[in-house]
Specification:
The complex is a heterodimer. By secondary structure, chain A is mostly beta strands. Chain A has a single domain, classed as Ubiquitin-like (UB roll) (Roll), CATH 3.10.20. Chain A is globular, with a radius of gyration of 12 Å. By secondary structure, chain B is α/β, with parallel strands linked by helices. Chain B has 16 helices and 14 strands. In chain B, the strands form four sheets. A five-stranded mixed β-sheet of chain B has the order 3-4-5-8-9, sandwiched between helices. Chain B has a five-stranded parallel β-sheet with strand order 10-14-13-11-12. Chain B has a two-stranded parallel ribbon with strand order 1-2. The model of chain B has no long low-confidence stretch (mean pLDDT 93). Classes of the chains: A mainly beta, B alpha/beta. At the A-B interface, β5 of A face β4, β5, α5 and β9 of B.
């Protein structure tokens, strides 16, 4: 079973029971190199494995950029 | 910096220890060709004074460190972060927190820019009774845009609220390694100058609590709400930020992997190619766009990021067969890194000292330096 959620404004699907960490890996992102706003709040990385995604969740994913 | 001077900012301090390099000119347009090889801060000062001779420009020709940061930043009202590495970004942040100064932040990479104001007033607060609401009620408010309210007076977040932990060293390439669209610096720098001027004037709504993400390729702006994290550790003093970001540990591991690595000069490589020998394979670990600018004949392209993420290791093995491996990049640093990774995967090879730069200087001047 899949659920639908919104990532950076776009609709995406993932398997029921997926954690935020699973989803980032599935999207080909390195979880160590991004920050995530989860339903409007910046979520600390330590909580990504315990956060189980639910239908219609809203995520904004930012890649860490350090250049200047 | 130029817009700040042009707007009439009376005093600007610049901290930098670098000299102008021709590779800076595509994005650091405060400098001109006549300043190549000379200190960046002096070049910047000359240009600022051309625009506004009444501006006091203080030059600090030094590295910004935990030892001098508080002293350097103390006399100024606002700190603008245009640094290019994570240890210095955490240092700038913590310095501003300790001194209670706004940190006007901007960072860039390839076609992407980020900007905000840290450690200033302005943040997001939840409506009354939010914690008691059910998931559905919260969602309903979110859809109506009533889940957050901006409080322009409340203390805003800092860098550690957005990025509590630094990324592992070496995984995020610098602008010099990964490239950056020159105009991007103008856009992000322009946003930073705008915010600094607004803070000075006390006008408008600053970016405090809002991270602007700019995607130049698609010409799109996104905005993220930042909040202070109640669990974040209190910043009490400056620490060793290289250590905090794992830099010395990574360097030691890299040095160990590269210890005893075989090396050759470009002249030796040229002689080997001219001898007609076919018992070696030459691997180029730069990025594809660099190959279009300058190439050593006969090389096979396998970019360093591919080798680091594992996919490229097998490709190197396939390219080698039973032949010996020679690796090059632009200056010799990335190829040494690649050989370090390959060694951990059981493959050894020879590093070309100085890469394509040395090749164009010592072997074939028709190959451009970039």
């Amino acid at each position: 079973m899949m659920i639908e959620l919104r990532i950076n404004g776009e609709l995406k699907t993932c398997a029921i029971g997926s954690s935020l960490h699973d989803l980032l890996t599935q999207l080909g992102m390195n979880p160590q190199l991004v920050a995530v706003e989860y339903n409007g709040e910046i979520l600390a990385r330590s909580r990504w494995t315990e956060t189980i995604l639910q239908a219609e969740d809203c995520l904004e994913v930012v890649t860490i950029v350090g250049g200047g | 910096m130029l817009y700040l001077a042009a707007a009439g900012v009376g005093r600007i301090g610049i901290v930098d220890f670098d000299v102008v390099d021709s590779s800076n000119l595509q994005r650091q347009i405060i400098h001109g060709t006549s300043w190549v090889g000379k200190p960046k801060i002096e070049s910047a000062k000359a240009r600022i004074l051309e625009i506004n001779p009444f501006c006091q420009v203080d030059l600090h020709e030094t590295r910004f460190t935990s030892e001098n940061a508080l002293e350097l930043a103390r006399p100024y009202d606002i700190v603008i972060d245009g640094t290019d590495n994570f240890p210095t970004r955490y240092l700038v942040n913590d310095t501003c927190v300790l001194l209670g100064k706004p940190n006007v932040y901007g960072s860039i990479f390839r076609f992407e820019g980020q900007a905000t104001v840290f450690n200033h007033k302005g943040t997001w607060v939840r409506p009354d009774g939010w914690a008691e609401l059910s998931r559905e009620e919260k969602k309903a408010l979110r859809e109506k845009g009533q889940d957050w309210f901006y409080d322009a007076e409340k203390p805003g977040p800092n860098y550690r609220d957005l990025y509590p932990d630094p990324p592992p060293p070496g995984l995020v390439p610098s602008c010099a390694e990964g490239g950056v669209l020159g105009v991007l610096c103008g856009i992000v720098g322009g946003i930073q100058a705008t915010e600094a001027i607004k803070i000075i004037l006390g006008q408008g709504t600053t970016l405090s609590g809002r991270l602007v993400l700019y995607d130049a390729l698609n010409m799109k702006f996104r905005e993220l709400k930042l909040q202070t994290n109640p669990d974040r550790p209190v910043i009490e003093k400056l620490i060793d930020y290289e250590e905090f970001c794992g830099v010395p540990q990574a360097k030691a591991a890299e040095k160990e992997a590269q210890a005893g690595m075989a090396e050759m000069t470009v002249t030796e490589l040229k002689a080997l190619i001219d001898s007609g020998a076919d018992d070696f394979v030459l691997v180029d670990v730069r990025n594809p766009h660099e190959v279009e600018i300058a190439k050593i004949p006969g090389s096979v392209l396998i970019p360093l990021p591919d080798i680091e993420n594992g996919n490229g290791v097998q490709r190197v093995k396939d390219a080698m067969g039973n032949k010996r491996l020679i690796v090059h990049c632009k200056a010799g640093g990335r190829s040494a890194k690649a050989l370090g990774v390959l060694k951990m995967n059981g493959v050894e090879g020879t590093n070309v000292i100085g890469g394509t730069l040395a090749w164009s200087r010592d072997v074939d001047a028709s190959v451009p330096e970039y």
